[in-house]
Amino acid sequence: AIFFPSADGVCVFKCLVNRDTEYCRLGKESVLITLGYNSALLQFKSQAEYSTFSNALKRCCNQKKEDSVFSQRTDEASAAQYFQFYGCLSQQQNMLQDFVRTATYHSAILQNHIDFKDKVVLDVGCGSGILSFFAVQAGARKVYAVEASSVAKYAELLVRSNNLSDKIMVLSGKIEEVSLPESVDVVISEPMGYMLFNERMLESYLHSKKWLKSNGMMFPTFSDIHFAPFSDEQLYMEHYSRTNFWYQECFYGVNLSSLRNAAVDEYFRQPIVDTFDMRILMARTVKYTVNFTEAAEEDLQRVEIPFVFQMMQSGLIHGLAFWFDVAFVGSLVTVWLSTAPTEPLTHWYQVRCLLQTPLFAKEGETLSGKVLFVANKRQSYDIQIVAVVDQTGFKSVIFEVTLVIVLGCHEPCPYKVANLISVVCALTAPPTGRSRISLSLSSGLPIP
């Protein structure tokens, strides 16, 4: 960064430059430099001052660009696809038209206006900039809106057309790479993905705390992820019926039946993004809390959630269902945004992981195990679910299921599942008499 101080040492202009910065000399004492989506014409009093600036600019631009935290943890192709998706106005419209999402953020910010009055605010992943506008409506003195996708130019256009250029500054870049001219009082963002963790934007949200004052606030403040076992025979049979196509022994003269088992494996490795009736749940939910004010980025690279469910009804367990809530804890009120199946539908829907081999459990028995999220470079997580029915030893037959899933990013749609890139399955029979199913799923494409 290059700073221009006034006579008393106060920074009056700041240039964030790197090896990709474009600039050219105009005349003997001026330079035109491109800063994001804007250009600045700098005129100096003398050739000596111009030479000093020019040399400093060349040194900055010729420095080797170090990989940011984001670049180190993210596959380059995945990042390109991710930002291309969010650069589309159609996706921004999809999120803006999610009434629950937009109205809840509006209420959380405006109802806690004293937390924003005359404050400096950072909007992480601002998208269209809607949260930045809410912050200004609540009285914010200055908002720094950071956006890495190409939609930043549209956010800048909205800021100018709403005559708020003096209040909102759009910074094009990743929060891990941009530099702010000052610390902030409040960080706002919408970093949640499917099953809360998908997309790994929560880590960027936590990274932004490096700009937050010691007594600063975060909106949202914390989140709860909920999950429970469910029974859904219809959904299970629908998945199996889709594989009947591969039973054909004379499809234009070709026998397809040898691929039927592989097709079954593939269908049952796809996490299901849809909604459902709460009555399919067979036990009370388990809750896991992430406090954004206390958590560090490293805490989200591996998240292990143990669970013990007391079965409230007998029947087949077809899988686990997931959703999340987030809380905005302000000085005046606490506002909740919920994606639960009992609440109005959002673009996050709910997510279900379906077991290829259902587990039978009786009322009063326990289903215990763990859900393990391990971050990968595809902006997602490898998810391992281990569940055991009544593992106390009182039963002669004990089922153990191990399910490994990579939950990729994809566009939400009811009864729509993630697109597959690769699938691996292994079925083993341990000597204990238990049946174990190991599955892994890789999926990709954009994102909620």
Biggest sheet features: 7 strands, antiparallel
Output the radius of gyration: 26 Å
Q: Please, what is the average pLDDT?
A: 82
Total helix count? Answer: 10
CATH homologous superfamily label of the largest domain: Hnrnp arginine n-methyltransferase1
User: Which consecutive residue ranges, at least 5 long each, have pLDDT under 50?
Assistant: 392-448
Give the tally of β-strands. Answer: 23
CATH third-level topology of the largest domain: Hnrnp arginine n-methyltransferase1
Name of the top-level CATH class of the largest domain:
Mainly Beta
CATH architectural designation of the largest domain: Distorted Sandwich
State the helicity in percent bands: 10-25%
Secondary-structure-derived class: alpha+beta
- Overall body shape: elongated
- Spatial separation of the terminal alpha carbons: 34 Å
Number of domains: 3
Strand content: 35-45%
Question: Assembly type of the shown chains?
Answer: single chain
GO molecular function: histone H3R2 methyltransferase activity; protein-arginine omega-N asymmetric methyltransferase activity
InterPro entries: Arg_MeTrfase, PH-like_dom_sf, PRMT_dom, SAM-dependent_MTases_sf
GO cellular component, one term: nucleus
Organism: Apteryx owenii (Little spotted kiwi)
